[in-house]
Design a protein that fits this description.
- With 452 residues, the chain is an alpha/beta fold.
- It folds into two domains: 109 residues, MoCo carrier protein-like (MCP/YpsA-like); 337 residues, Rossmann fold (3-Layer(aba) Sandwich).
- It is 47% helix and 14% strand.
- The strands form four sheets. It has a seven-stranded parallel β-sheet, sandwiched between helices. It has a three-stranded antiparallel β-sheet with strand order 1-3-2.
- A hairpin with a 2-residue loop joins strand 2 and strand 3.
- The longest helix has 21 residues.
- It is globular, with a radius of gyration of 21 Å.
- The N and C termini lie far apart (59 Å).
- The relative contact order is 0.11.
């Protein structure tokens, strides 16, 4: 489909320099990254985690900036037909398309340029804040009510239906939902929350999706997302989740979900965050009980009993999950009110440098990870998080898959305790087909070598 699209929601005007960067594919240019992210939005609702297949299928897609005296338009050529109805772009898709334009322009401004190394952790946190503020996500006159939901895009129908039920009970309690914006456990809670909000006549419910350029094509925004933010990289995406979210629910998933769990537990286990209230619930239907028993054993076996104290496991009781969240958000409000902290952004949370600096995935960086017992739990969590991040890259990110195809699987080296724990959880993910979408065979992108 070819079309000329006018702005919807944000960023009606651009400077000449911004237009030049969006048209350039050279150093400092934004054309390639904008095209990729725009295609992901136009492909909204598609459940395909093979980035290269998506790009191949839409190889003829083009997007260009049209400058007008009264603002800008986007000229699309060979855009996915699913983004249109009767020849007109679906309004929600148009809103997200211009949200992508807004964030890519802001990222390219230098404030949040991809790959930019900032001097301090405060600089990185300030960058995360600025991207979120520029997207108008931060609301000052609102009590803590945003629940982040994590989980896999490749889950069973039973698990997906359960995520909708949890979202429904969250919505009935007036709670908003934030996810990674894709399919599966990222879509279900939002879909359920829309019904809960509708029953309560809540017409301004927030369904916030937070993504980043290297993963959005593999996890196209689901149709429920009504606010989308593109962060510069995975580390800033994860920091955005824990800074704006007031509580977190984790559903079954694969290595990406394990990465998120380790990120959050690593942050919460830092001594500076000992008093930070952050309601955290692991939950799924009865069929997923053994999955969470495995996750619990992995966490305790690697990070120790203290990590278990930071979460609660609730099986098969969506109403209880929502009650726990609602009660926990009351504790968050009391904690921040007593310290005169902002409700909309958790400035007080300490996010250590290993959780902030981008991890450049390569065969050398994966082999060099310190996967040995005896480290402080938050430091081991940081290294385990990077290991899972590398597997995610090898599974679905274009650059990571290319590295594996060229040089073979990534090698992970750990001692016998950590190596055995990693081997158990990764084998379980493969056996339960949580590494890729149903109907596809999985070829491991990693090799684990445990040493004494």
């Amino acid at each position: 489909m070819d079309a000329i699209v006018t702005p919807e929601g944000s960023l009606e005007i651009l400077s000449q320099r911004e237009v030049a960067r969006l048209r350039s594919s050279g150093e400092g240019g934004l054309q390639d990254i904008f095209r990729r992210c725009a295609l992901a939005v136009l492909n909204s609702g598609a459940e395909d985690d093979d980035v290269r297949e998506v790009m191949r299928r839409h190889a003829e897609f083009e997007i260009a900036i049209v400058e007008l005296d009264r603002g800008v338009q986007l000229a699309l050529r060979n855009a996915p037909d699913s983004a249109f109805v009767d020849g007109t772009m679906i309004r929600g898709v148009r809103e997200l398309l211009f949200a992508v334009l807004r964030d890519i322009v802001y990222i390219g401004s230098g404030v949040a340029r991809p790959g930019r190394r900032l001097a301090t952790g405060e600089d990185i946190t300030d960058m995360v804040f600025q991207v979120l503020r520029n997207a108008r996500v931060l609301k000052t006159q609102q009590d803590p009510n945003l629940v982040v939901c994590w989980g896999g895009h490749s889950i069973s129908r039973t698990e997906y239906d359960y995520t909708k039920l949890v979202g429904y009970h969250l919505g009935l309690r007036g709670l908003d939902v934030c996810t990674g914006c894709g399919a599966g456990a990222m879509k279900g809670p939002m879909k359920g929350a829309t019904i809960g909000h509708s029953k309560q006549r809540i017409r301004n419910g927030l369904y916030l999706g937070i993504s980043e350029p290297s993963i959005i094509a593999a996890e196209s925004p689901n149709p429920i997302v009504n606010q989308l933010v593109i962060m510069p990289d995975i580390e800033k995406r994860l920091e955005a989740f824990v800074r704006v979210g007031h509580g977190i629910v984790v559903f079954p998933g694969g290595v990406g979900t394990a990465e998120e769990i380790l990120y959050l537990l690593g942050v919460l286990l830092h001594p500076d965050n000992a008093d930070q209230p952050m309601p955290l619930v692991f939950t799924g239907p009865p069929e997923s009980e053994s999955y969470f028993r495995m996750i619990d054993e992995f966490v305790v076996g690697t990070l120790g009993d203290a990590a278990r104290e930071r979460y609660r496991i609730v099986i098969g009781d969506a109403d209880e999950v929502a009650r726990v969240m609602k009660e926990g958000l009351g504790e968050v409000k009391a904690f921040r009110h007593a310290r005169e902290d902002a409700y909309y952004f958790n400035w007080r949370l300490n996010v250590d440098a290993p959780f902030q600096q981008p991890f450049e995935v390569s065969h050398a960086s994966m082999a060099a990870l310190d996967l040995h017992a005896g480290q402080p739990p938050h430091e081991l969590a940081a290294n385990l998080r990077r290991a899972f991040s590398g597997v995610v890259a090898g599974n679905i990110r274009e650059q990571g898959r290319a590295l594996v195809e060229r040089d073979g699987p990534f090698e992970l080296r750990g001692d016998r305790v950590i190596g055995k724990a990693l081997d158990t959880v990764l084998r379980r993910f493969v056996a339960e087909r949580r590494m890729t979408l149903p109907g596809r065979e999985y070829t491991p992108c990693y090799r684990l070598d445990a040493v004494s």
